[in-house]
Amino acid sequence: MGGLRVALFVEGSMAPPPAHRTPALERIWNEHIADQLAVDRFAPIVPISKKHLVAMDPAAPTMSGSGERLDQLLVRMLRRHPFDVAVVAWDLVPAWNPEGTFCRWQETLDFYRLLAASQVLPRNWTAAAQARYQDLSTRSVNNARPGPPKLSAHAIVAVCMEPMFEGLLVQDEQAVRRALGLEGARAPGGWPGTGWGAPAARQPDSALLVPAIASLRRIRPRNEVAKRIVGDFRTNKDGWGEYILRQLLRDEQARPVVLGHPIYRRLREWLS
After folding, report:
1. Global confidence as pTM
2. Do residues 244 and 170 make contact, with C-beta atoms less than 8 angstroms apart?
3. 78-128 pLDDT, tens per residue?
4. DSSP string of 211-266?
5. Spatial CA neighbour of 126 closest among 82, 89, 71
6. Domain ranges of the chain
7. How are strands ordered across the β-sheet holding 6-11?
8. What is the pLDDT of residues 166-222, one digit of tens each?
9. What is the SS3 string spanning 116-129?
10. 62 in helix, strand or coil?
């Protein structure tokens, strides 16, 4: 990445991990994504909620729990852990509105428009956001561009994960079953039988992974994987996500499918 320090602002758990453990969110994005892309590791990695993005829009209704805006968070982290580039990755489908109609392109345009209008970001950052907005908003069609994007200082890279990060994990049901120690076994009671693959369910976390992990945890005698990971998918989403992603990348059949996911392709395009 040309010596640029890249920070990652990504949807993930805000709960601090035990002091002696590397956060699962950091393992996901540095060990299983940055390392696989052969790019420098992200530093810092900052968990966000999509509410950080929504709070930037003065036209948006006030939401419960939406305090700090993303631009304010960027400034705060710049002072604490200086960086040259920010990658911001968010889920297209927010947890609070799974049935809403969303457009990734429009949301990305709004993202850059609002950053360009920020009154708190340093001028070089808002200028870069304005240039990116101008480039995107004047295209004749969404994917019309002169060439691959080039990373430069003060860039803010938008990665809208469609429908959400967990879509990366549910592309192959049999691979997930292998990761959970269920290969060759009969599906446990409550296991979701539909929605796997591409395109995945609109909310792959609640539609697939929540019931899959719940069914795994009900097996008696206890499944070996369930013994090692604390909590269910709702209470320990990052922990389960990190484990499943790690196992998929070790699986010769699943690995190319995972690395071909749009999340990997988008980051590879920007950062490699």
Report:
1. 0.91
2. no
3. 999 999 999 999 998 765 455 555 578 899 999 999 999 999 999 999 999
4. HHHHHHHH-SSPPHHHHHS-S-TTT-HHHHHHHHHHHHHH-TTTHHHHHTSHHHHH
5. 71
6. 6-162, 168-253
7. 45-48, 6-11, 85-91, 156-161
8. 999 999 999 999 999 999 889 999 999 999 996 667 889 999 999 999 999 999 999
9. HCCCCCCHHHHHHH
10. coil
